[in-house]
TrEMBL record:
<dbReference type="Pfam" id="PF08240">
    <property type="entry name" value="ADH_N"/>
</dbReference>
<feature type="domain" description="Alcohol dehydrogenase-like C-terminal">
    <location>
        <begin position="171"/>
        <end position="309"/>
    </location>
</feature>
<dbReference type="GO" id="GO:0016491">
    <property type="term" value="F:oxidoreductase activity"/>
</dbReference>
<dbReference type="Pfam" id="PF00107">
    <property type="entry name" value="ADH_zinc_N"/>
</dbReference>
<feature type="domain" description="Alcohol dehydrogenase-like N-terminal">
    <location>
        <begin position="22"/>
        <end position="125"/>
    </location>
</feature>
<dbReference type="InterPro" id="IPR013154">
    <property type="entry name" value="ADH-like_N"/>
</dbReference>
<dbReference type="InterPro" id="IPR011032">
    <property type="entry name" value="GroES-like_sf"/>
</dbReference>
<protein>
    <submittedName>
        <fullName>Threonine dehydrogenase</fullName>
    </submittedName>
</protein>
<dbReference type="InterPro" id="IPR013149">
    <property type="entry name" value="ADH-like_C"/>
</dbReference>
<keyword id="KW-0560">Oxidoreductase</keyword>
<dbReference type="InterPro" id="IPR036291">
    <property type="entry name" value="NAD(P)-bd_dom_sf"/>
</dbReference>
Length: 353
């Protein structure tokens, strides 16, 4: 098969062997696969996995790895000991994990679990979900990204006495904003340096847009939370500000620590960024402020299914997030484009192009 192959930190498109489905696995043809920031983190920071003893992700620079974990595919064949409940030709997707003889592996992050940046890859039959929709595969492939924000926003259980702020309007921040609005939460404050990303946040449901180059996000949050001019703030503060819930969706060093230093006392923080090189945090300040930090962890299967169905039935509109599509030969350049904050939240790889 043809695939965009990662080796020694470089991606090139060439021909490699087709994957062979093992017990309980499906061979599928990739129809569409989004380029995610975690793909970039994976290829740019092989050292980040050194402390990961889960065995789910392996970056061996001396072997071929085909990335891509946000996909829609078509069933081509059934491996041994499958129930064959999904007919050949059916469009499917799944949580990006594969059950193998050596344990659970992340699809697109191991030599033996190629992802959607190639013509073919493998799925575990029990994890496969049928795409019951006429939507283009390019749109449905965004469901995995939606599931991350869906899970965070759902777990946060933001109350009417809390005002959420989303820092970083990439795909995960945008999916968080869209889910908060779907849950009836608001006003939602969206923060990003990039004007185009802020406008996409508006399209996804953000109520207040903040350019942190012009105003402190935390001052902007206070303006929204108090709904009062400067002279009335002391009175509002004495009565108690609405609670602060911050979703950190940037993943660059210093951002999470900036939340600790700038946010209100008692702020609940959901950190979905996670810089590969780690982060220095002022934990004493966090303790004094009573800041509660919940790190991502990825969506539960239940939340993934809910987000997938919402995208498939059209009730969750992902079109503001989707940019252009590229073929396999264009993947190396598209990965560079995905690093550009001026670009769309999702560039979609279509191997059949």
């Amino acid at each position: 098969m043809r695939a965009a192959v990662l080796r020694n930190g470089v991606v090139e498109t060439r021909t490699i062997a087709d994957p062979t489905p093992g017990p309980g696995q499906l061979l599928v043809r990739s129809l569409a696969c989004g380029i995610c920031a975690s793909d970039l983190h994976f290829m740019d920071h092989p050292e980040a996995g050194a402390d990961d003893d889960s065995g789910m992700s392996t970056y061996d620079t001396d072997v071929d790895i085909v990335m891509g974990h946000e996909y829609v595919a078509e069933v081509v064949d059934h491996g041994p000991r499958t129930e064959r409940r999904i007919p050949v030709g059916t469009r499917v997707s799944s949580l990006p994990i594969l059950f193998t003889a050596t344990g659970v592996k992340i699809i697109g992050q191991n030599p033996e679990t190629p992802g959607g940046f190639g013509e073919y890859f493998l799925l575990s039959e029990p994890m496969a979900r049928v795409v019951r929709s006429e939507l283009p595969a390019e749109l449905v492939s965004v469901a995995d990204a939606i599931s991350v924000g869906w899970s965070a926003a759902t777990r946060a259980q933001v109350t009417p006495r809390e005002v959420p702020m989303v820092i970083g309007c990439g795909a995960i921040g945008l999916s968080t904003i869209g889910t908060l609005k779907r849950l009836g939460v608001g006003p939602v404050v969206a923060v990003d340096f990039n004007a185009a990303r802020r406008e996409t946040a508006r399209a996804m449901g953000a109520d207040v847009l903040v350019d942190p180059a012009e105003v402190s996000p935390y001052a902007a949050w206070r303006d929204v939370a108090t709904g009062s001019p400067d002279g009335a703030r002391d009175l509002v503060a004495a009565a108690g500000l609405p609670g602060s819930v911050v979703f950190e969706c940037v993943g660059l060093p210093g951002v999470l620590d900036g939340v600790i230093m700038g946010a209100e006392r008692g702020t609940r923080v959901f950190s979905m960024g996670g810089p590969p090189a780690g982060e220095h945090l002022h934990t004493l300040t966090a303790k004094r402020k009573g800041i509660n930090i919940q790190f991502g962890g990825g969506p539960s299967p239940e939340h993934w299914d809910q987000a997938f169905e919402a995208v498939c039935d059209g009730s969750y509109d992902v079109t503001p997030m989707v940019g252009h599509s590229v073929g396999l030969d264009e993947v190396p350049a598209a990965l560079d484009d995905a690093r550009d904050a001026d670009g769309p939240a999702r560039i979609i790889v279509v191997p059949t192009r």
